[in-house]
Amino acid sequence: MITSLFDSLGDLSKGVSVAAVGGYGRGELSPGSDLDILILHKNKSDSDLLEVTNTLLYPLWDQGFKVDHSVRTIMQNRDTAEKDLRVILGLLDIRLVAGDVDLVAAAQSDAIHLWRKSASRYLPELKESMKLRHERSGELAYLLEPDLKEARGGLRDINSVRAIALSGLLVPSIERISTAESTILKIRDSLHTITGNSKDRLYFQEQDKIAEHLAYSDADSLMADLAKSARSVDYILSSIWHSVEHRGKDRSGRFLKKIRSTQLSPEISISHQEVVLSIDAPVTTDPTLAFKVAAAAAQVGLPLSLDTCLRLGEGAPSVSTPWPRVARENFISLIGGGQSMIAVWEAFEQEGIITSWFPEWQVVSSLPQRNVLHRHTVDRHMVETVVHASALTRMVHRPDLLLFAALFHDIGKGTLEDHSTLGAQLIVPIAARVGFDADDQQTLKILVEQHLLLSATATRRDLDDPVTIASVLALIPDLETLELLHALSIADGEATGKAAWSEWKAGLVADLVDRVRSAMVDDTIAPQPELTDEQKEIAATGELTISVQKREHDYLIDIVIPDRSGLLSLVSGVLNVLRLDVRSARTKTVTDSAVMQWVVIADPHAPEVTEVLLKKQILLAIEDSRALAERIQSRINAYATLPTIPVPAPVVETFTDGATDATIIEIRTHDRPALLFNIGDVITQCNVDIRSAIVTTLGAEAIDTLYLREFGGGALSNNRVEEVSSKVKSALLK
């Protein structure tokens, strides 16, 4: 129609062209879309231009088309584009409709040249405008009634990806973007057709009609498909912006920011504020590598590079079942990374890695929750829950179980069955696959099955009624499970939103937990380690004896050593300088010897661990403890340059063990280099004897239980307890 109208201009058409820009230029018109038209001319008079525009536009308006038009010369077009981001973005998609082809070609060439030349000015403006738009319109993937065009992950963001690609700074994955765009455009076309208007907001009442129109099984399937597409767009766009910010080039082609690589391990480093795998990393042969690099990224609070994710998605081998300890520990470190784990998890989900680990995740991936309480899809809600749970790890004695239960508490959704019951059935084989033992599997089953118990009971039952407390006691076997369930309830409520969790509700749940706790026996403090007859016999010799057992992914080290002050600190320090990461330890002093058992994981740079090496290093440390401390401080200083993430404050609690006349100090804190060395050193400087220790590292969380006595015998006085615990806590906060 426009072509025939243009032809009717006769001689007036000389030196004039009609171009399509924006969505019209891209050929992305939906039934209700506007026509974005640019009329270019070679210095036509005002009267001629008036006749041209009237001839072209009035018939279009009469036919019901909504036309957004501009009239400019090439020079005017160039000047306007230089000043107006929206104009130049529209010109990047310019297309000839009718008239002078050279005018449109010149406008297109000008726009691309200007865009590339001034990318360092335009891109920050584009990013800021996107940020404001996202704040107004929310996330397309998670809204009940999203705006298909303006929301994060929507059509405007797709156009931004293409614009950034035209800047020449990098080459994004246009193929993946195109697939998502096709889905969103298809849904928008259907929306315009069904509603008969040009609105791009997908209201709840239209979703069933559109699902039927597009042959989806139901509205949930429609919204899940839309969410997956939006998440794909957002993932690519987030990666692009990160690369532009840290690898963008100035006009001369130099990097705007060039950041030196920082090595985290032989295969993993930080480069340009991303965590990356080295070129020669064993991607196709090491099934634990994906776990290691994901944990590293989450714990330093940086994203994974897109190339690293693509390599792992295409080439990572399947992990054995049950998972080796190194895989499980790194997975717990990943999901314990707080807010920073979201980007890592999303990247792995986009590349298919999450569903390769957990096929059950496919059912809940992008599954909408069509009610006003929930802000997110099922899978994103569980991820948000584990983020909130990471701030509550000091509340519990098994932070790994809290994090794991938080991540999978709604895994039973997506069917007509009760999701708590089905989830309890699913979590057992999942936990077994990951390598949790039978007792832990049972605890996780209870947590998933009863994750609504405390909230429902606290808000619907009379807490003064003994029957209410008895009903909870019947379902929760011990205090450890109670504290886990309490923390899970808080995390679930906070992740759901203010409509589901308030101070009032939190107070009711806490009151219920206090009442149930008072009816239970405290069994959360681990008893002192028991020694075998063989260990007692070796201890009786009074000699330094070491045995090393190399296992598939770690070492089991048994040490019997003549007792002396500061042994726990000294031996853990030796292990640290040998690049051996302590995952657990059990120590006990009997007669005049300390009996120790350590489970350690060797750094790739660690020397071969042998009895001879350990004995030599321990004797050297006994001879010169200052040299050992200096070597450890050197390693700590190296780690101090790495980025960090926010973590909960450490918790230091003390108890009296009436059975052994000892003072128990329990420390729950985020793991860090030489942690046990520092704790032991502080206690030694307080002139206190560590008689036994139970040390456990769960992912990135450490729980250390130490049995202390005065050197003259007996438990510590109240003043001494306060002194020791205060100094330990101060050391942990440094």
Automatic annotation (TrEMBL):
Protein name per Swiss-Prot or TrEMBL: Unannotated protein
CDD domains attached to this UniProt entry: ACT_ACR-UUR-like_2
Record bears the keyword Transferase: yes
Residues of the signal peptide: none
Entries under PANTHER family matching the protein: BIFUNCTIONAL URIDYLYLTRANSFERASE/URIDYLYL-REMOVING ENZYME, BIFUNCTIONAL URIDYLYLTRANSFERASE_URIDYLYL-REMOVING ENZYME
Single annotated GO MF: [protein-PII] uridylyltransferase activity
Domain HD: 378-482
HAMAP family: PII_uridylyl_transf
